[in-house]
Design brief:
The structure is a single chain. The chain is of the alpha+beta class. It is built from 3 helices and 9 strands; from the N terminus they run αββββββββααβ. The chain has a 5-stranded antiparallel beta sheet with strand order 4-3-7-8-9. The chain has a 4-stranded antiparallel beta sheet with strand order 1-2-6-5, with no helix packed on it. A hairpin with a 2-residue loop joins β3 and β4. It is elongated and about 75 Å long. The N and C termini lie far apart (45 Å).
């Protein structure tokens, strides 16, 4: 039979490292949707876009997941970009249809969401006022949740 005092002491010894472990911090700090090239305007159906997600915090190199309309399109580890002086995940995206897309990036317990509206090609090529309205929603990022850090 095990002495209850020894068992209790062993349990405390096992629990202490867990109780006093430092909090892991990873945060998705931004999502941007950018033109892929100067020859194509992102925001027009079938034109190329670049999705740029920035990660910060001590665990910024942890796996980061990007989804568009709930479908995972990327699971990558952010890399340091000397050009941007930040840890980023960068991916190409070519929306195939007009409409509003929800882009979500998740890293650990941190999630950030943005909505991006893509105009039909015909509307974009006419230069009409509704096309300008389509692009207004680009990059309207909002924090859906964030890790403390």
């Amino acid at each position: 039979m095990v002495d209850p005092r020894i068992a209790g002491t062993a349990l405390i010894a096992l629990a202490l490292p867990i109780l006093f472990a430092p909090n892991a911090t990873a945060e998705v700090s931004s999502i941007a949707v950018l033109d892929e090239s100067m020859y194509e305007t992102c925001g027009e159906a079938s034109n190329g876009c670049t999705v740029l997600v920035t990660a910060t915090g001590a665990d910024k190199e942890d796996l980061l997941t990007v989804s568009i309309n709930g479908v995972v399109v990327s699971e990558r580890t952010p890399v340091y970009s000397h050009l941007r002086s930040k840890y980023v995940v960068e991916l190409s995206w070519r929306p195939t249809a007009a409409g509003t897309y929800t882009l979500t990036a998740t890293q650990g317990t941190s999630t950030r969401t943005t909505r991006f509206t893509v105009c039909p090609e015909i509307l974009a090529s006419t230069g009409s006022a509704p096309f300008a309205a389509c692009k207004v929603t680009a990059g309207s990022a909002e924090a859906a949740g964030s890790a403390a850090g």
